[in-house]
Amino acid sequence: MKSYNVDAFVLRLRPLGEADRILTLFSRERGKLHAVAKGSRRSGSRFGARLDFFNRVSLTLHRGRSLDIITGAQSAIDRSVWDRLVEPETFALASYVAEVIDALSEPDLAVPELFDMLCELRDAIGAGVPAASLAPAIDLRLLGVLGLAPELDACARCGSALGNRPLAGGRARLSPNSGGLVCRRCNVEDVGALTGDGGATFGVSAAELSMLRAQRTAPFTALGDIGDAARLRRLTSAFVEYQLGRRSKALAVANARTARRPAPKAAAR
């Protein structure tokens, strides 16, 4: 079969020559794919905006020698999603998700649950759910779908049940290197970088632990204010970056943008 159809998300676009692009796609039918969109960089291209970043698109592809060729594309542009994606925080989150999926998924391996997660994320973006509220849940869902979920109910090292019992100092400890919660006996010193180098652990309160557990299965469209979202994001992204084996480029850009943002002015008295 030289031609085939897929339902896919556009995760990445790279220039090829003067007029073409190489696209990284994630499809329901075949997982991650790389394909060429010929002429897509020309003004008036027949593809129009259908192949823009994070669009969901129905594609027809023709098998090539090294890369498959996109011969047809159909997509309904959702203005509610598009209007949100141009916001820096939402674009940064989508870029982060695309980076992680590209790095941790295997080519030509269908993972329908991951495709469904992308659909749910787009729905939540279109519904106006804040990126800050989405981020921790997305980290945990990504890891769960890929079989890399952190253990949040028992010690990741010895398997002892922890429930809601606080550990030393009234706080539990999370270790990316160990794969989740660690009990007092298994606790290691916090001597590593954020992503862990064999020793990093992070203290979490009972309330934070309860929130993390709830985020694992919470529908994205139901997420609202989660308190200190930045704190939860630091915890969940540590597990993602540990699996990446490096810092996330998209997350680093987002953090740098946040750091440059001026602090809110105090209200006049």
Write a brief structural summary:
The chain is built from seven helices and eight strands; from the N terminus they run E-E-E-E-E-H-H-H-H-E-E-E-H-H-H. By secondary structure, the protein is of the alpha+beta class. Among the domains are: 3-77, Nucleic acid-binding proteins (OB fold (Dihydrolipoamide Acetyltransferase, E2P), Beta Barrel); 80-149 and 216-258, no CATH class.
Structural write-up:
The protein is elongated, with a radius of gyration of 21 Å. The protein has helices at residues 79-85, 88-104, 112-126, 131-145, 206-215, 229-244, 249-260; strands at residues 3-16, 20-27, 31-37, 56-62, 68-74, 172-175, 180-182, 202-204. The protein has seven helices and eight strands. The model is unreliable at 189-198 (pLDDT under 50). A hairpin with a 3-residue loop joins strand 2 and strand 3. Among the domains are: 3-77, Nucleic acid-binding proteins (OB fold (Dihydrolipoamide Acetyltransferase, E2P), Beta Barrel), CATH 2.40.50; 80-149 and 216-258, no CATH class.
Q: How many DSSP helices? A: 7
Proportion of residues in helical segments? 25-40%
From the alpha carbons, calculate the radius of gyration and give it in angstroms. 21 Å
Spatial sequence of strands, sheet with the most strands: 1-2-3-5-4
> Beta-strand percentage?
15-25%
SSE run: EEEEEHHHHEEEHHH
The biggest sheet, with number of strands, parallel, antiparallel or mixed sense and barrel status, is:
5 strands, mixed, barrel
Whole-Å distance between the termini? Answer: 73 Å
Shape: elongated
